[in-house]
Amino acid sequence: MKVRVHVSLKPGVLDPQGRAVHHALEGLGFTGVQDVRVGRLIELEVADDTTDATLDDMCRRLLANGVVENYRVERV
Amino acid sequence: MKVRVHVSLKPGVLDPQGRAVHHALEGLGFTGVQDVRVGRLIELEVADDTTDATLDDMCRRLLANGVVENYRVERV
What we know:
By secondary structure, chain A is of the alpha+beta class. The first copy, chain A, has two helices and three strands, in the order βαβαβ.
């Protein structure tokens, strides 16, 4: 089974990578960009009987940093 | 308007970060994980009249490396 984990910084947490991308887009002449945030997209191939609780456990223990990041698990 | 750009490595391209995560999950006792790939999730706040062509241009010129990465644009 394929699972996608979307990890993004919580609102209010400073995102230097996002700011750099924002700046670079402006430098390339793209106007109208108001904000850029960069997160991670983790695609896992797991056993079909993997429970939601196990996936959540993976996120909390390794894939996301709960202090500054939100995550969302999506079964594909 | 909010836009999400999903950037992932093309199949066949070596993903050391994904392998490290895979290894770490096994080390934590999670069994049944067959594969892990790590990509980027870029969230942009852009002007409402931004066209698909402009978004595609941003991806090709800055957000994704077309040689080794695929990207998908999603309007939220």
